[in-house]
Amino acid sequence: MPASSPSGEVPARSKRADAQRNRQTLLSAAAEVFVASGVDAPIREIAARAGVGMGTIYRHFPTRADLVVAVYRHQVEACAEAGPALLAEADSASEALGRWAALFVDFLVTKHGLANALRSDSGGFDALHAYFLDRLVPVCGELLDAAAAADEIRPDVEAYELMRGIGNLCVGDDDDPRYDPRRLVGVLLDGLRRPQSS
Q1: For 3-19, what is the mean pLDDT?
Q2: What is the pTM of this model?
Q3: Which of 64, 67, 143, 181 could form a disulfide with 97 if both were Cys (CB 3.0 to 4.6 A apart)?
Q4: Which InterPro entries does this entry report, sorted A to Z (predicted)?
């Protein structure tokens, strides 16, 4: 429990830390709901997942577009931070790349719905897309370089090229139960792997 001042008030720093944690919890819950149900999912579903009232969400994010943009940035940062962490903990660089690609696919579900949520603000969407590239292309490049250096994948694939390919495979999802972008992304990554010598 945060220490209180002589007047019984919680210090401002603790309040800010609590507010930041609450915001991160909301964004994580919203991201999970958006991945499962799309960006048009009811706010009450997000509130239930986060364990808060709907008023709490509206205090942090007055409009759906505010929430979608915040989730987008939250997921970009999660993907960016996951790359080095996966390289450190996975058994191989190619495994780290595969696990990162799975996170990236989940992120793309939200990204594809963002255009509709921001259709009246194309400049805002363009700025977010630039931010997405600036943060994630170097991370994907680091994963590819590590796997190529370990001779686990072919060395001639660029990060932007791979991310664009994964993105194109995810566009076709559109709630078609016969289409599974994750499976096809797996096939794409299998095509990068070096054959194992017997």
Answers
A1: 61
A2: 0.77
A3: 143
A4: Homeodomain-like_sf, HTH-type_TetR-like_transc_reg, HTH_TetR, Tet_transcr_reg_TetR-rel_C_sf, TetR_SbtR-like_C
